From TrEMBL:
GO terms for cellular component: cytoplasm. It comes from the Eukaryota. This is Arrestin C-terminal-like domain-containing protein. SMART domains: Arrestin_C. One of its GO terms (biological process) is protein transport. Residues 169-304 form the Arrestin C-terminal-like domain. Pfam families: Arrestin_C, Arrestin_N. Belongs to the arrestin family.
Amino acid sequence: MTTVEISLDSKTNVFFPNSEITGKIYINTTEANTVKQINVTIVGRAYVFFLVSHYQESRPYESEHYYLNANECLWKLNETNQLLNGEYWFPFKFTIPSNAPANVSEEFGEIQYFIKADIEFYGKKFWGYKKYYGFSVCPVIDLNNLDPKLKLSASTEITQIEEKCFSCAKNPLNVKMTLPKTGFVCGETFSLKIEISNKTSMKIESIEYGIELKCLYVGGYEYFWPRFVETFIKEIVIYVTKDCIKPESDSTICNILIPPLSPTFTDCSILKLEYSVFVKVRTSAFFQSGPIIYIPITIGTVPIKKTESEVTLNAMEIFESAYFLEGSNRCEIGDNFIWTFKEREGPKNVQPKFACYSNLSLNETLSVKQ
C-alpha cells in the first residue's frame, strides 16, 4: 500500500506571478520494491468546454491554453538509488510565470492551477498513482497604473417614452445612474446613485441593481473528414450581485459590496471576463419592460490610492493589507471524457481564492435630492 500527500510551504496557498512556489511530496509505502519513479508536475491551464446543438446532435467545442506546465523527476530507481519501505519527503520548487492570470471558475470555462504527484510502479494496474493539489494565483492588477479614467466618477442615463393612444403627448421616464469611480477591488463597498424622473402614467414598482458578469468563451470543434476546426463563440451573462428596492423618492443611494471574484480578464483568446454595474427599473406597464442601463467597471487586485500615505507604497506593500477569501465555483464542465479525446486532469471542486480588502470606506458621499 502507498499513501501520497502534497503540501505547499504557504499559509494561504495563494501565489503571485514571478514568485517561487515550494512544497513537499509525502510518501508512505509498503511496496517500495515496485516503485519505479516519482514525478511532480505544476500546471496552470485555461480550459473551455461547451456543447452546441446542431440539427439532431450536440457538438462539443473546447479550447485550452497553458500558462504553466513544468515537470520534475524527484526520484528514479537505479543501481545506486534504492527505495525502502517507510516514509519519505521529497521537496520541490517551481516559479509562477509573470503572465499567470487569476483563477477562473465559471460555467463553461476555468483557469486552474494544481500540483500533480505521479508515482510510477512496475507491474501495477494503470502503471501508477496520481495525486492532485490545487492552489490560487493572484496577479498584480494595479488600478493606479491602468486607465486614469478609472479614478473618475461616471454616469449614464436613459429615457423611455410613453405615447398616449389618440394623443400627440409623449411622456418621458428618465433614469440616471452615477458611480464615484469605475475601478474597484474585491471587498470594496461603493455608492451607486440612482435618479428617476417619471412624467408617465406608469408606476415605478421596484429598482433592481447590482454587478453583471459577461463571460465570453471561444471553443473549437474538430472535424475528422474533411479535417478542419470550426470555432464557435458563446456568451453568457450572470448577476454576481443583485438587490431590489422600492424607491421612496426621486433619488436613491445604494451601497454595493464586491464579493470575492476573478478580476477583469480580457487578455486570453479563449476566455474573457467583463463586469458592469446595472440598474433596471420595473414599471407597472403591461406591454413594455422597464429601462435598464449599464456602466462598465474594472475589477483589479490593487486598489486605487486615496491618501498621501498610500502614494509611496508599491503594489506588494499594499497586498499586505489584503486577505484572501474563497470565491464561488460556478464551473459545470465536469468530467467530459465521453466528449473529448483529451485527458482531463486536476483536482475537483477547488474553491479559488481572491485578494479582498476590508479597510476601504465608501469612496465619497453622494448627496440625495429631497
